[in-house]
Design a protein that fits this description.
The protein has 16 helices and 9 strands. It has 2 domains: about 100 residues, Arc Repressor Mutant, subunit A; about 240 residues, Rossmann fold (3-Layer(aba) Sandwich). The protein is α/β, with parallel strands linked by helices and about 350 residues long. Bound molecules: S-adenosylmethionine. Pfam families: Methyltransf_31 (PF13847), WHD_Rv2258c (PF21320).
């Protein structure tokens, strides 16, 4: 008997078979749950009595045959309850809080849509494994819309109630300050702030034409909010802003240090920089028990890291972690970097630092 046969652990093999089946079913169900979100099926079942597939199809205005197959997948996956006696389906109240639009940032079917989006670039990512380089932003056509939905849910819940108090800038915003958001995407954060604080001026910067077009459209009523298309590694403003934010917009940059130096330059002395980045350690061994870590490293490989590499960038990756982030912020000139968090946003670290 060779050595590998001697140490072969049958229980471990059996247990891994279950793990593999769980992964396969989870992957399949994440696509179906993304469809459930997009079609509004979870929302029409929210708080409703048990109903047949025909009743649910009628309520949602969807094809019964598809709805029935989707309900079957959801029932087998333990997402929705099935009552065999009258062939009815019900969304349990205990599940609805993670699956419906009313749940805002707790609705996991929103980030789950990323699985389908990433699937669209699988072939390009496989090519990049062979040839190096990366997959550029224009290969992710629905990225800005998805990002806007995902972070918008969070901004609606956290920006005014938690983030503004965290920064201690409520009074300044009421009186009138200059605030910028770099890598602003579709501009939801600044639209919310712009309508809440009419005496302040807000400017968003992003390289994405789609993102800026959506941002301008979404804020067309607001005269104190503006958006500019620009490469954040070449920010022009010098000492023009009192507060600068970046939400999830440093780790996927091609040249993150140039962006941070630009942020530092654009702040007035004594100004505040809020850098929001995925909650992670720079060490794999610290992340390995994090229940969200497999998802984080997958999104990194298939989006955040690859878009940076596509432009000859550093490819920091989603899990660049608080240790590396703190080093970057310090090297860019920020002092007393404080790492904190906010309620309703468990997946991000909030780095608050000052320009001396
Ligand atoms: C993960 S998204 C976050 C968007 C937005 N802050 C939010 O939370 O919804 C990262 C954003 O950084 C932008 N971005 C990437 N590279 C950039 C660059 N070189 N200059 C300006 N923006 C850039 C992308 O277009 C994208 O909108």
């Amino acid at each position: 008997m060779n050595q590998s046969a001697e140490v072969y652990d049958k229980d471990k093999a059996r247990s891994f078979t279950q793990t593999m089946l769980g992964i396969m079913n989870g992957g399949a169900l994440s696509l179906m749950m993304s469809i459930g979100h997009k079609t509004g099926l979870f929302d029409v079942m929210d708080g409703e009595a048990p109903a047949t597939s025909s009743e649910i199809a009628e309520r949602s205005g969807l094809s019964e045959r598809y709805v029935r197959e989707w309900l079957s997948a959801m029932a087998c996956g333990g997402i929705i309850d099935y009552n065999v006696s009258d062939e009815t389906f019900q969304l349990p109240a205990e599940h609805a809080g993670l699956l419906t639009r009313r749940s805002g940032p707790l609705n996991l079917t929103v980030p789950m849509q990323q699985v389908a989006l990433l699937g669209e670039v699988e072939a390009d990512i496989v090519d990049a494994f062979h040839s190096g380089g990366g997959v550029p932003y224009d290969k992710f056509p629905r990225f800005q819309a998805l990002m806007s939905e995902q972070s918008g849910n969070r901004f609606d819940r956290t920006l005014i109630d938690h983030i503004v108090p965290l920064l201690g800038i409520q009074q300044q915003l009421e009186q009138g300050i200059d605030m910028a958001d770099v890598g602003c995407g579709s501009g939801r954060a600044l639209s919310i702030l712009g309508s809440a604080f009419p005496n302040s001026r807000f400017v968003g910067f992003d390289v994405s034409e789609d993102g800026i077009a959506a941002a301008r459209q979404n804020s067309s009523e607001l005269t104190n909010v503006a958006f500019e298309i620009c490469d954040a590694a070449q920010l022009d403003p010098v000492e023009e802003f009192d507060v600068v934010t970046t939400f999830d917009a440093i780790h996927d940059q091609a040249r993150p240090m140039a962006v941070l130096e630009g942020v530092h330059r654009m702040l007035r002395s004594g100004g505040t920089y809020l850098c929001v980045e995925p909650k992670a350690s720079s060490l794999l061994e610290d992340n390995i028990q994090d229940p969200m870590a497999p998802f984080m490293y997958t999104v990194s490989t298939m989006h955040c890291m690859t878009v940076s590499l596509a432009y000859g960038g550093e490819g920091l990756g989603t899990a660049w972690g608080h240790q590396t982030a703190t080093e970057y912020l310090t090297d860019a000139g920020f002092t007393d970097v404080e790492i904190t968090g906010v309620r309703d946003d468990r997946s991000n670290n909030y780095f608050i630092s000052k320009k001396p």
